[in-house]
Specification:
The protein has ten helices and no strands. Helix 2 runs antiparallel to helix 4, helix 7 packs antiparallel against helix 8 and helix 9 packs antiparallel against helix 10.
Length: 294
């Protein structure tokens, strides 16, 4: 016990750093400031694109600035997606079911971002001769709506299931997740800074979100292994592993072409709903049967 408390004391400063970052990010004032910054970025992007179309920008800036006003919409939703992705990383410190709900939100925003991304391929003024962009926009919007509906059912179905009764074990489990989330926050900031430097030097897109989602896949596997250390029962391992399978399907759908990305994301949402319903309905029965009789 003394060794366990010593380990907790050594890790406590790092978890306090994570708590400060989490509190700062979730503070209403921070969220308002970020919302204003995104709006200003959107307006400045529109102005910069118009200036580039008129040939008013210096050569180095014109090389980095697009010429389609629709790119400003894509930029705004990319920033919103980045905010949601940060919240997803921070939510890892909470319950797995809460983190999974945040994954639903991020996936819906990704589909909406893909819909707005199709606008960048349209000419100005808008003249549609090829129906394919409309089909892609409609499918992305429909997919986001379906995931939004699944999210509503998910919040109704999910129930808190406490698999750890020992307070000390519970503390160690939460601290383990906070340490991993802190590492992911540092990776998020480092990858964002690296990609920003690459973009301003060469104008190349470094696939930031694809890189982050690849990192999160390995983090998901780590979460399963960590949870199995503290919750070794079959029901807990099945629930946590099945939830991670759902998130893996969502993330892998990002790298698949249409219409498989649409189909995979919808299947992942329905799969998570099925797992939530099954573990909620049969969880208490299973746990009662595993309690040894006196």
């Amino acid at each position: 016990a003394d060794t366990e408390f010593a380990m907790i004391e050594r890790c406590e400063p790092l978890t306090n750093i994570f708590d400060c970052i989490h509190h700062f990010w979730e503070h209403p004032r921070t969220q308002k400031i970020l919302a204003v910054l995104i709006l200003l970025t959107y307006l400045l992007a529109l102005a910069g694109i118009e200036a580039n179309r008129e040939g008013l920008l210096p050569e180095w800036m014109a090389r980095l600035t697009p010429t389609s006003h629709f790119q400003a919409i894509q930029l705004a939703f990319t920033l919103i997606l980045g905010m949601e992705l940060m919240e997803l990383i921070l939510s890892i410190s909470g319950s797995l079911s809460k983190s999974l709900g945040k994954q639903f939100e991020v996936m819906a925003l990704i589909l909406l971002r893909d819909a707005f991304k199709q606008l960048s391929h349209l000419p100005e003024p808008v003249s549609i001769t090829d129906p394919q962009p409309l089909l892609l926009i409609a499918s992305s919007g429909a997919g986001a709506l379906i995931i939004f509906i699944c999210l509503g059912f998910y919040h109704r179905l999910r129930a808190h299931q406490n698999y750890i009764s020992d307070p000390l074990e519970q503390m160690r489990y939460v601290m383990s997740k906070k340490l991993m989330a802190l590492g992911l926050v540092l990776l998020f900031a480092g990858i964002a800074l690296r990609d920003a430097v690459i973009f301003f030097h060469s104008g190349e897109d470094s696939a930031f979100f694809e890189t982050i989602y690849t990192v999160l896949i390995f983090a998901d596997i780590a979460l399963v292994l960590i949870s199995q250390r503290f919750m070794p029962s079959f029901h807990a391992v099945f629930r946590n592993s099945a939830f991670v399978i759902g998130t893996l399907l969502m993330r892998l759908s990002l790298s698949t072409p249409w219409p498989w990305n649409f189909a995979a994301s919808i299947f992942a949402a329905l799969y998570v709903l099925g797992v939530t319903w099954a573990t909620t309905c049969f969880g208490s029965t299973h746990m009662k049967r595993t309690v040894p009789r006196a």
